[in-house]
Design a protein that fits this description.
74% of the residues lie in helices and 0% in strands. By secondary structure, the chain is mostly helical. The chain is elongated and about 60 Å long.
Length: 82
């Protein structure tokens, strides 16, 4: 007998986007109390969850890049080199 399929409720699906900005997929799985493999399967079969995960990661990268560019423009040599 197979295990029941784990799904995220609508509030959790929404939360994935926020969490993805600061946590890895493994950490998000831990947060929801599910296995890493289970979370990856959810990402594979539920396009909305995958989209929110990608959007959260992209927002984090965008925020960091924006901060880095601002520092570089302000004369931060390390930021310029990076």
């Amino acid at each position: 007998m197979a295990r029941p399929q784990v799904t995220l409720d609508p509030a959790q699906v929404h939360e994935v986007e926020t969490l993805a900005a600061v946590l890895s997929a493994e950490q998000i799985a831990d947060y929801f109390g599910i296995g890493r493999t289970t979370f990856f399967r959810i990402l594979e079969r539920e396009p909305d969850v995958l989209e929110r995960y990608k959007r959260g990661k992209a927002k984090a990268v965008g925020a960091i890049a924006q901060s880095l560019v601002s520092k570089a423009r302000a004369g931060d040599t390390t930021a310029m080199i990076f």
